[in-house]
């Protein structure tokens, strides 16, 4: 009998009825074996353990209404597993005497069942073993291994309707009324509603395949010699095509009954699964509701059957209570906190890119700042009057702890966009293959070096990889001093080149140098500021006038006995306020430095990788020929990587003398990130995108200038744009206070910018290279509103 009255198939069903003497005859007739029989529990089929001196088997009589296609599906799945993972401990299909996968038998009530014989999987049922963390972890890992073995397998009957399919939760919601206990009923309704509201909308985004769908404690066995390790999986009767995430929910099911700390028990299972078959973020987001729905589904089915069956013994009596007791525990934790626990344990960021709050603690800015200051010191700098707590990024968007989107017009570190999938995948795949150092030979190192040098002039044909722009500049400085025999450096007056001791001395803008100059061996050039500098736009000979200052600097260094080892220049001139540099200026300065015996170091940490829009590198845009180029920040889209590019002659001479080696510089994962960045720049045509979008943005900013007197100048090239804020256009008086107020108001309006310049009154607009026309329009609108409110 299977009177569903319109319900899901097998929601209410009895098992086949074969007397034991007939079972013996059927075993002999179909399979040619007989032996001792022992009844085994089953949801809808009739199962026996059959044992004799030759072995042990499971003799299964399928429910008469089971579709033959479903049985064929299960049979072929077991055959597939035996082929893809021969050592996997699962039942083996034993053919009939005629070589068929199953036979048929008619019960005394006249109904016919398909009969199958399976090999016995040795071991102890999981529910009979003392629970521990290793056991939970290994269970998750075992189920994931099974799912990996099932990848690539499909059968037309995999989509059959099954009452134990978690996807049936909405259809079962109407039967919660069969749960007599009001509190249990309320818990189940809450869990099933959570599934409907939070899982179903994500359903199409979840990975799907053929899954076991019932790897609970009754269907997992443990090797008695290793009682803390799950060894095998049995009972494939509930197999379906379903979401991979459901496997974690099913495997976690039984572990919620006996322990007080149910969430950590479930997390152990998830960690085990993830160690073999990494979970995706969408899957982690639904784990809590899937586990809750599984408990609710079980309790509802049991209650429904108890009401519908008359005279039939309940299957697993007491399961309604144990399921709802476990459900009560996890619902007490709550979805947000529970999901946050899964994310933290599985090392996912605190929330999804467009997600909502996970825990109250995560969005308590004061608590976050207190913790940060405690462990990182109170002087670690932050942007904005109200610091921004970000958790995720995507493209040119950053998301705060509440999931609010901010247009990022400042970060050049993530040069091709926050979390670009091509870069993320390259890093992940390489990290799973090899992570070592350059004292071993691996192909990706030379591949990246060759690819990077291919973007530069032919004389820049050798490189050394490090971890940051500071390190790259330090090595470039060492090269220049060693190979020239001189110890003096020339930089811009507001220069910033890094944090090492040697490079901090070449960075007058750093806090330790402000007010009393850089090191005595460092000469500073007057920035070529054609807006507020000594020579301004419209005057003739601007490049010559500003470049003449290099003669003074060289003379000072010679007089002090240092000589000129190098001229180090940030080709974006960011810290100098992003001036519109006169054409030919850098070329003229470089000629003077070379004539004095010094080298030219082009610091491309800010301007490199296509940011000019018209050129790949800032030195190309300025028409300057460097001896050494240094790269940092954008090179790995946020992954630590720095590069020094120079000629073979310079590099070979330096490395021969110093034996230079960087433990992490040039590691395969960094190289993979670097290659992926170059891929994206090329494949997405980001130079042209930058050129077009930056021109549109600057046109919009100049329109603002017509309406707002506080804008004194709009300047820059490509995705390095400066907007200078003044209190008086005639006198060009810098107004840092107003600039900061506008910047902080724009932050509140959802747009992020930075500040630069000697007086801190210049907006620095330096977005990721994927910054769009819409992003630019959002920036202009926010700036307009903020200025209108001043």
Keyword list:
single chain; 790 residues; alpha+beta; Aspartate Aminotransferase, domain 1; 4 domains; 6-stranded antiparallel β-sheet; 24 helices; disordered N terminus
Short précis:
The protein is α+β, with helices and mostly antiparallel strands.
3D structure, described in words:
By secondary structure, this protein is an alpha+beta fold. The chain has four domains: 20-119, Phosphorylase Kinase, domain 1 (2-Layer Sandwich); 124-345, Alpha-Beta Complex (Aminoglycoside 3'-phosphotransferase, Chain: A, domain 2), CATH 3.90.1200; 360-411 and 685-790, Aspartate Aminotransferase, domain 1; 469-631, Aspartate Aminotransferase, domain 2 (3-Layer(aba) Sandwich). It contains 24 helices and 27 strands. A seven-stranded mixed beta sheet has the order 15-21-20-19-18-16-17, with helices on both faces. β18 (566-570), α18 (585-595) and β19 form a beta-alpha-beta unit. α12 packs antiparallel against α21. The chain is elongated, with a radius of gyration of 35 Å. Residues 1-6 have low confidence and may be disordered.
């Amino acid at each position: 009998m299977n009177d569903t009255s319109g319900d899901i198939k097998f929601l209410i069903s009895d098992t086949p009825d074969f007397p034991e003497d007939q079972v013996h005859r059927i075993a002999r007739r179909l399979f040619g074996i007989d032996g001792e029989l022992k009844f085994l529990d089953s949801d809808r089929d009739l199962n026996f353990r059959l044992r004799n001196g030759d072995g042990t088997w499971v003799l299964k009589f399928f429910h008469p209404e089971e579709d033959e296609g479903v049985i064929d599906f299960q049979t072929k799945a077991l055959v597939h597993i035996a082929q893809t993972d021969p050592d996997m401990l699962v039942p083996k299909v034993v053919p009939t005497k005629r070589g068929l996968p199953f036979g048929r038998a008619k019960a005394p009530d006249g109904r016919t069942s398909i009969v199958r014989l399976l090999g016995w999987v040795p071991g102890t049922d999981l529910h009979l073993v003392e629970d521990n963390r290793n056991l939970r972890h290994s269970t998750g890992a075992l189920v994931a291994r099974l799912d990996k073995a099932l990848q690539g397998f499909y059968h037309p009957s995999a989509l059959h309707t099954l009452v134990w399919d978690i996807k049936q939760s909405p259809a079962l919601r109407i039967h919660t009324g069969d749960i007599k206990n009001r509190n249990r009923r309320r818990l189940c309704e809450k869990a099933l509603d959570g599934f409907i509201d939070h899982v179903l909308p994500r359903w199409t985004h979840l990975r799907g395949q053929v899954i076991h769908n019932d790897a609970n404690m009754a269907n997992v066995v443990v090797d008695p010699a290793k009682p803390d390790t799950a060894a095998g999986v049995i009972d494939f009767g509930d197999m379906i095509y379903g979401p991979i995430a459901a496997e974690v929910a099913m495997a976690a099911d039984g572990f919620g009954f006996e322990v007080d700390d149910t969430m950590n028990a479930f997390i152990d299972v998830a960690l085990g699964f993830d160690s073999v078959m990494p979970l995706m973020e969408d899957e982690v987001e639904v784990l809590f509701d899937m586990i809750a729905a599984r408990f609710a589904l079980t309790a509802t089915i049991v209650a429904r059957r108890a009401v519908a069956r008359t005279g039939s013994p309940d299957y697993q009596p007491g399961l309604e209570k144990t399921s709802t007791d476990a459900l009560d525990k996890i619902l007490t934790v709550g979805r947000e906190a529970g999901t946050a626990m899964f994310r933290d344990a599985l090392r996912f960021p605190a929330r999804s890119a467009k997600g909502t709050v996970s825990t109250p603690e995560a969005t308590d800015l004061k608590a976050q700042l207190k913790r940060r200051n405690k462990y990182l010191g109170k002087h670690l700098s932050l942007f904005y009057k109200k610091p921004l707590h970000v958790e995720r990024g995507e493209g040119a968007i950053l998301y705060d702890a509440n999931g609010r989107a901010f247009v990022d017009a400042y970060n050049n570190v993530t040069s091709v966009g926050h979390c670009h999938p091509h870069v993320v995948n390259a890093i992940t795949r390489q990290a799973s293959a090899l992570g070592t150092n350059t004292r071993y030979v691996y192909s990706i190192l030379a591949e990246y070096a060759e690819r990077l040098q291919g973007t530069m002039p032919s004389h820049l044909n050798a490189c050394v990889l490090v971890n940051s722009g500071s390190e790259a500049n330090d090595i470039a400085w060492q090269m220049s001093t060693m190979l020239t025999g001189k110890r003096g450096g020339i930089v811009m007056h507001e220069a910033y080149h890094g944090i090492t001791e040697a490079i901090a001395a070449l960075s007058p803008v750093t806090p330790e140098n402000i007010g009393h100059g850089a090191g005595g061996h460092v000469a500073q050039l007057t920035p070529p500021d054609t807006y507020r500098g000594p020579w301004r736009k419209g005057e003739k000979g601007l490049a010559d006038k500003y470049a003449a200052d290099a003669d003074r600097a060289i003379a000072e260094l010679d007089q002090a006995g240092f000589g000129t080892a190098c001229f180090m220049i940030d080709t974006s001139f960011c810290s100098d306020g992003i001036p519109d540099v006169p054409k030919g200026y850098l070329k003229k300065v470089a000629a003077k430095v070379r004539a004095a015996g010094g080298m030219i170091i082009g610091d491309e940490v800010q301007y490199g990788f296509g940011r000019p829009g018209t050129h790949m590198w800032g030195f190309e845009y300025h028409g300057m020929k460097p001896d050494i180029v240094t790269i940092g920040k954008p090179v790995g889209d946020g992954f630590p990587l720095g590069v020094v590019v120079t000629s073979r002659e310079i590099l070979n001479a330096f490395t021969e003398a110093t034996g230079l080696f960087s433990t992490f510089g040039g590691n395969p994962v960094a190289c993979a990130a670097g290659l992926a960045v170059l891929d994206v720049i090329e494949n997405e045509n980001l130079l042209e995108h930058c050129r077009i979008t930056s021109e549109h943005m600057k046109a919009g900013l100049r329109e603002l200038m017509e309406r707002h007197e506080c804008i004194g100048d709009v300047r820059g090239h490509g995705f390095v744009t400066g907007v200078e804020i003044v209190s008086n256009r005639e006198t060009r008086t810098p107004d840092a206070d107003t600039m900061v107020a506008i910047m902080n108001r724009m932050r509140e309006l959802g747009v992020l910018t930075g500040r630069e310049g000697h007086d801190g009154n210049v907006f620095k607009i330096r977005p990721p290279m994927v910054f769009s026309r819409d992003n630019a329009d959002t920036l202009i609108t926010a700036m307009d509103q903020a200025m209108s409110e001043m």
